[in-house]
């Protein structure tokens, strides 16, 4: 069975909520999902053995959180080329982090990215629950195309 790893970096918990909803969308599609805090990933081996990887961080002062920067340097060595990818994050107004994560996954890791990064101001208001679950479903859908 295909397996998806969803890793989040959060300060107040909003990006974790989005990660859990993406995980639900993956599981609704019948695909296994593991959701993990970026701080739990200690070496590149922790990122191996998955068919799709989805990374997310909230934005502070125009940047992703340091835990996500560290994770991306580990991921560079994990051999993720060709794997399905996605990026997400909670934001307030400018939301730089998800796009930067997405571009690194596409351009440096050469992953097969789903349409766009998912950016949400709130995981549960304004259709957030559905949008995050749909993002998970689109990750699972891209895996099933293969
Ligand atoms: C000190 C501070 C700086 C912030 N800087 C930004 C920013 O530059 N751009 C932005 O879009 N949101 C910014 N935000 C809003 C957060 O991204 C937003 O509250 C988000 O929901 C936090 O998600 P988290 O709980 O996953 O950390 C900032 C919030 C705080 C408290």
TrEMBL record:
Cofactor(s) required, per the database record: FMN
Gene3D superfamilies documented for this protein: 3.40.50.360
InterPro entries, alphabetized: Flavodoxin/NO_synth, Flavodoxin_CS, Flavodoxin_dom, Flavoprotein-like_sf
Domain (Flavodoxin-like) ranges: 4-140
GO molecular function, one term: electron transfer activity
Domain of life: Bacteria
Protein name: Flavodoxin domain containing protein
